[in-house]
Amino acid sequence: xxxxxxxxxxxxxxxxxxxxxxxxxxxxxxxxxxxxxxxxxxxxxxxxxxxxxxxxxxxxxxxxxxxxxxxxxxxxxxxxxxxxxxxxxxxxxxxxxxxxxxxxxxxxxxxxxxxxxxxxxxxxxxxxxxxxxxxxxxxxxxxxxxxxxxxxxxxxxxxxxxxxxxxxxxxxxxxxxx
Length: 178
What we know:
It is a single chain. 56% of the residues lie in helices and 17% in strands. The chain is of the alpha+beta class. Strands 2-1-4-3 form a 4-stranded mixed sheet, with helices on one face.
């Protein structure tokens, strides 16, 4: 069993690796904004969510050791201003020398933090009828077309006159029928 875990971690799952890097960079971005805005409670909440995600990743064992270490280092660096003694101890336990407080604040990469997939909510006359997972770069026309082609939506629009289709990019398509 241990050999299977090591083999999975060594090879790394591409999707799991992309997800880990995306969530790491999103957390760095959120924590930085919260720190600058003096919103320490929401910063700690973001770090707790990130910790929960890291626990799931570790249990799955589908990312490389280097990617894991990068994420843990980022977490500890983000923790340092609000829990300095704990962060210093964790920094040393993860194999680093000298003080965490002499390290640079982690930087996020906007391209890595960007969502790859979003959930498009489809409504008919303002009532939820479907949710569709789509690419984050979906065009408005394509989103409308996917919404109209949904089997769950077709039952509510068949035989009715479509008055208007309202689209909020990357979030919602509302079909108004009469």
